[in-house]
Amino acid sequence: MRGRIHRRELLRILGASLALPALDGFASVQAAQKRVSELVNLADFDDLAQRRLSHMAYEYIAGGAGDEITMRWNREALDAIRLNPRVLVDVQPVDTRVTLFGQEYNFPLLLAPTAFHRLAHREGEVETARGADAGRVPFVVSSLSTRKLADIRKATNQPLWFQLFVLQKERRAFVREVLAEANEAGCRAILLTVDAPVTGARNRSERARFRLPDAWETPYYPDRTGRKQSGGLPISGALTWSDVEWLRGNTDLPVLLKGILNPTDAKQAVSAGVNGIVVSNHGGRELDTVPASIAMLPKIVGAVEDRLPVLMDSGIRRGTDILKALALGAKAVLIGRPYLYGLACGGADGVSRVIEILRREFEMAMVLVGKRNLSEVTKNVLAESE
Question: pTM of the prediction?
Answer without folding.
Answer: 0.90
